[in-house]
Automatic annotation (TrEMBL):
This is Diaminopimelate decarboxylase. NCBIfam families: lysA. InterPro entries: Ala_racemase/Decarboxylase_C (IPR009006), DAP_deCOOHase_LysA (IPR002986), De-COase2_C (IPR022643), De-COase2_N (IPR022644), Orn/DAP/Arg_de-COase (IPR000183), PLP-binding_barrel (IPR029066). Residues 30-371 form the Orn/DAP/Arg decarboxylase 2 C-terminal domain. It catalyses: meso-2,6-diaminopimelate + H(+) = L-lysine + CO2. Pyridoxal 5'-phosphate binds at G239, E276, P277, G278, R279, Y373. It holds the Pfam family Orn_Arg_deC_N. Its cofactor is pyridoxal 5'-phosphate. The active site is at C345. It comes from Jezberella montanilacus.
Length: 417
């Protein structure tokens, strides 16, 4: 990523040497680049320019207040999935009219809070959720704007890379049952039907599955139109992939040019296009800095034991995800093949495997692509404090979340009398 680059042997985030940050703030440390967030946003802004569209940051990917505030300033909407996420976006002054509320398990209190705030729309995933939402809204004297999340069942055989998206049975309403579900929604007193949405998977690098899904949704919209149900927006979800290793990411413009062309060709350009990108807005805007505590050379493998673990960044342990590893100060000595592992008492506690690195004890390394689904998935296993988060802006930096303390770890706990 261009916002993280070497000057000489030193790795920088924008104008700040990362080794300086590690020294000043300690490790493990999440570092984000403000310029990288802005650049990622601009790719969407340019791709939607001149069209009726709304980009709602899938904030589950990174929900730090400073990150949310940046996107709010840039004009972003937000895709939320909980009352907690709603509280966060409201805390940065986001416009509720640009918030869509996704998720299969919305609780009554979450519906109430979202109705109170006046969100743009609820992305509803089941019939019982529709019934509950109508009741909650009616009791409050309100009408809930609703989009149904449809599972378009994009062919797994043609697009095996999103096959996990297909098995997600808990998500969405099967497309064959969608018309019936819409008729039911339209009959409910507390519901106003406004849209349709889908989210076909994540880390997608091809246009094909999106166009397949779009095609199915447009057929559904036409069917609904004939039944007298008029939709105002079409939400294609998130899912655009980023470069972790050697992937060729799908540029928003490449996808959206084709989507808008299709909408126009089929006479659906009256629809507002909504998107819910998460990873592609933040994934490569962050790195995780971590110190090499020990180099442990064994007969079968060499381990670089670092001070970050699976509790700080769980993606490798959970998905066998690949993240790049960069030294903060490049050495030109010979490399050794290491497994980069954490201090947690689990064999799954690794961040990178079989990497050729020139390391010495005490070196600091950067784990790349740690802006999405990284800090947000961190936990306190092994009673480890969660890392601090820092935002670099040009040659300045700001601590946007303090490192947790031991006092934080036991806050709220008590012993029996
Ligand atoms: N909309 C909905 C309804 C979603 O479920 C998601 C992500 C998004 C939008 C944003 O998708 P994105 O643009 O980030 O692909 N923890 C996993 C990723 C889980 C994605 C969950 N849903 C990981 O670390 O790869």
């Amino acid at each position: 990523a261009p916002h993280f680059h070497y000057e000489g042997s030193q790795l920088y985030a924008e104008g700040v040497a990362l080794s300086e940050l590690a020294k000043a703030l300690g490790t493990p440390l999440y570092v984000y680049s403000r310029a990288a967030l802005k650049t990622a946003w601009q790719h969407y802004a340019q791709a939607t320019e001149g069209h009726h569209a709304l980009v709602c940051f899938g904030m589950k990917a990174n929900s730090n207040l400073a990150v949310l505030k940046e996107f709010a300033r840039l004009g972003s909407g937000f895709d939320i999935v909980s009352g907690g996420e709603l509280a966060r976006v409201l805390a940065v002054g986001a416009d509720p009219a640009k918030i869509v509320f996704s998720g299969v398990g919305k609780q009554v209190c979450e519906m109430q809070a979202a109705l109170e705030a006046g969100v743009k729309c609820f992305n509803v995933e089941s019939l019982p959720e529709l019934d509950r939402l109508s009741e909650v809204a009616t009791a409050m004297g309100k009408i809930a704007a609703v989009s149904l999340r449809v599972n378009p069942d994009v062919d797994a055989k043609t697009h095996p890379y999103i096959s996990t998206g297909l098995k997600e049975n808990k998500f969405g309403i099967a497309i064959e049952e969608a018309v019936t579900a819409y008729m039911h929604a339209a009959s409910l007193p507390g519901i106003s039907v406004v849209g349709v949405d889908c989210h076909i998977g994540s880390q997608i690098t091809e246009v094909g599955p999106y166009l397949d899904a779009l095609d199915k949704l447009l057929k559904l919209i036409a069917q609904l139109d004939q039944a007298g149900i008029k939709l105002h927006h079409l939400d294609l979800g998130g899912g655009l992939g980023i470069r972790y290793d050697d992937e060729t990411p799908l540029a928003p413009k490449v996808l959206l040019d084709q989507v808008f062309a299709e909408l126009k060709a089929k006479g659906f350009d009256y629809l507002q296009l909504v998107l819910e990108p998460g990873r592609s807005l933040v994934g490569n805007a962050g790195v995780l800095l971590t110190t090499v505590e020990y180099l442990k050379l064994t007969e079968s493998r060499n381990f670089a034991i670092i001070d970050a673990g699976m509790n700080d960044l769980i993606r490798p342990a959970l998905y066998e995800a690949w993240h790049g590893v960069l030294p903060l100060v490049a050495r030109n000595t010979a490399t050794t093949r290491y497994d980069v592992v954490g201090p947690v008492c689990e064999s799954a506690d690794w961040l990178a495997k079989e990497r050729d690195l020139a390391l010495e004890q005490g070196d600091v390394i950067a784990i790349e692509s740690a802006g999405a689904y990284s800090f947000v998935m961190a936990g306190n296993y092994n009673s480890r404090t969660r890392p601090a988060e820092v935002m670099v802006d040009g040659d300045k930096y700001y601590v946007i979340r303090q490192r947790e303390t031991f006092a934080d770890l036991i806050r709220g706990e008590s012993c029996l009398p």
